[in-house]
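Table 4 source record.
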Amino acid sequence: MDTILDRIGGTPLLPLRRIAAPNGCRILLKLEDANPTGSMKDRMALAMIAAAERDGRLPPGGPVVEYTGGSTGVSLALVCAVKGHSLDIVTSDAFAREKLDHMRLLGARLTIVPSEGGRMTGQLTRDMIAAAEAIARRSGAYWTDQLNNRDQLAAYHALAGEIWDGTGGAVDAFVMSVGTAAALRGTAEALRRRRPDVRVVAVEPAESPVLSGGQPGGHRIDGIGAGFVVPLWRPELPDAIERVSTDEATTMALRLAREEGLFCGTSTGANVVAALRTAEGMAQGATLVTLLCDTGMKYLQKFGALT
């Protein structure tokens, strides 16, 4: 290794043991908490910055700006610290305090946009985007603009390759919660190139089911459910969309900690709830893969209030 960035990717696959599908299906979790900041977002942050450096959009030592619910900001802060870029992050009090502290400790400057009672809403996302765009115009910083940035898809194409190799090509379904939609899209596209009949299931908050035609609303699942149809979303890609509530996602995250020893965030809880539902309609012995998106260490205060 030359830098800590060389530790990004190559994460393990682990089968669930006690939280199991009743029909003998295998549910495998890609342990993205093994990335340096404890999140899958390390992959996309590195891909976005590296691509902008290669084509000159981001000069050596140039400033960067982004809006984020936290994990992308932490990952960008890590990448920018190693590569020598200053970073402005627009975020909100709706997101875990641990993430905000982590960004600051890695050198990012934070602009905090107030939320409505700590809930994630479409209006909050729009307000954060507007604030990031204003900083980019004022400072001339490179705006990674994660909701529109296709450079990150390459990171998830690589993730799909790891899943394919890790299962020996025996992956029957891929289940993934939707934030920017890049992880679902990039991973599913690359898996389908290898096996066209891989079942793809998207996951969204039940309180804000806009992808499946419902009304936007507030929820508390960090990192997913922007409150509107995001630009990278491809409606023809998933075979199904599962709606998972904040309570269901939180309960499953706590079960994963207590029954599997896997301490993760609520987006992972939503992934596992959806994977178990998906398994009910699969053939006996099928293999389903989803992601452990990030470590529960990013949510200590949130989970501490529940115990």
